[in-house]
Predict the structure.
Amino acid sequence: MVPTHYYLILSAILFGLGVVAFVFKRNIITIFMSIELMLNAVNLAFVAFSQALNKLDGQVFVLFVIVVAAAEAAVGLGIIIMTVRNRQTLNVESVNLLKL
Amino acid sequence: MNAPLIIFFVLAAMCVIGAISLILQRHPIHSALSLIVVMVALAGLYLLMGAEFVAAVQIIVYGGAIMVLFVFVIMLLNAGLEERTNFSKLAGFAGVPLAVALTGLLAAAVARSQDTVQAATQTGATAPTKALANLLFQDFVYPFELTSFLILVAILGAIVLAAPRGES
């Protein structure tokens, strides 16, 4: 039996790596993938708590998170396609219309 | 050291190495493949925790549908190597320390909460997938129906965004 806090610490590490990827990557698709990584880390925490408390509600919430992630991926990648069509580049530094 | 613990450490190492590889790879397709490794390892961890249905959904929806969408878009946009640009000073100096602090804070918080978490008795749940189905289609049936509406809106949004402009 693996202690529950091992899963939670792994979840924290994965979330932190997702944050690092989000801050340091310059490719808009990779930044989007790091958001998926953070969502996966949260899912791991949900399932770990579900197992620890012996209640299945956490697993139901994981299913909802996966649905929302799928919808987000579809819309986000549509936005990325539009951005690249307008800017001809994947670099987020060039998407600066709202920047002062 | 018993077998589940060894399996846990192998899968956790796969997760962390995949996530680090996602950061270090410069080509987006390599980052996507690293993310697939992370997702498959997470599915293994779900199996280890006895959440079979979530593991299957993780492989099918995340590893299958969403990552195929990512790889498809990367190939459609013909994405090449990532361009190196100068980081903003804030990200360069404070980014990594702040991320490490965030990870440490999260880990400390959950490690401290372990007493309350492990207070619950661990009885082996029988047929968790059946119980999950009962929960999903009875207690959570309205949120479930709402997600189908969300998916519909997302499909329409994706079509409107990505459809070619011009003749209309």
Observations:
- Chain A has three helices and no strands.
- The longest helix of chain A spans residues 57-87.
